[in-house]
Amino acid sequence: MSTVSAPRLLITGAGSGLGRAMALAWSARGARVLVADIAEAPAQETVALCTAAGAAEAHYLKLDVTHEADFVAAAAWVQAHWSGLDILVNNAGVAGGGTVDGISETDWEWIININLLGVARGCRVFTPLFKQQQAGQFVNIASMAGLLNPPGMASYNVSKAGVVALSETLTSELSPWNIRTLVVCPSYFQTNLDSSLRTHDPAMKAALSKLLTSSDITADDIAAGIVAAVDSHASLYLPHEKARAAWQMKQQHPEAFAAEMQAQARKQAAAKGRS
Q1: Pair 87, 32: CB distance under 8 Å
Q2: Is the distance from CB of 212 to CB of 188 less than 8 angstroms?
Q3: CB-CB neighbours of 273 under 10 Å
Q4: Which of 4, 124, 125, 260 is the most exposed place for a label (fewest CB within 10 A)?
Q5: Which of 36, 37, 58, 63 is nearest to 48 (CA)?
């Protein structure tokens, strides 16, 4: 089985949302997919959907990204059953936000442990296998928040900016072993990310839900773009056109971008003052 047309994949957080969409996109190509998630019931639904979509194989593996032992077990599983792995998708993540003086230390630790260290654990555990194979691909799901750093989202911004930094480091560090890293930075899209949100601001959950449901881009759209980005050996994928324009503005006109972010912060502060 060709690793180009039918790769062996492990996808964390594949029980729903973008994780499920990516599992189905690769299943349609006849891939072998290991659906890794902390919640078994939705993950088993994904397994059934992958099989129906044309996966050569689809299996469920319980994996909590906050436990390194779970990644070690997953690495043992793919070696025992598939003699290796072609693509590890570090997708599992949660949402958080609020003003920096309102985010508790507990919530900082929670989001960093899942969003950033969860990705780092996956990359750290699977790098020796990829080095042994002299080939491999990491797909790390970050966010435009990690590039643009909007106000009122400090903990989330930091966790996703860390994923970007890690991915950029691995792109160069692991290149001697033919190991590629793609970091994906989506903006808002139709998913269930708001279900994991932790915030001290009651208005934030409603605002996030509205942004997610009003998006004209779906998880399936982003998954298709990710598959194409892997095929083209890209190192960065920004699915949203408006977000790409904002990122370009930040790079080319940093002072103007900073002024826009400060204007957003003033609007947020004024809105809280009126509530």
Answers
A1: no
A2: yes
A3: 7
A4: 4
A5: 58
Is 156 labeled as catalytic in the residue annotation? yes
Catalytic residue among 60, 156, 188, 237: 156
Q: How would you label 170-179 residue by residue, b for 16+ Cβ within 10 Å and e otherwise?
A: bbeebeeeeb
The residues that bridge with 31 in the sheet, in sequence order, are none
User: Which whole-number Å values give the CA distances from 234 to 69, 107, 148, 259, in the listed order?
Assistant: 30, 33, 20, 31
The CA distance from 262 to 74, in Å, is: 44
What's the confidence (pLDDT) of residue 192?
A: 57
Could you report the per-residue pLDDT of 13-25, keeping only the tens digit for each?
999 999 999 999 9
Radius of gyration of the chain (CA): 19
Coil, strand or helix at 93: coil
**pLDDT 10s digits, 58-81:** 999 999 999 999 999 999 999 999
Domains and CATH numbers, the chain: 8-244 (3.40.50.720)
| Distance (Å, whole) CA 246 – CA 258 | 11
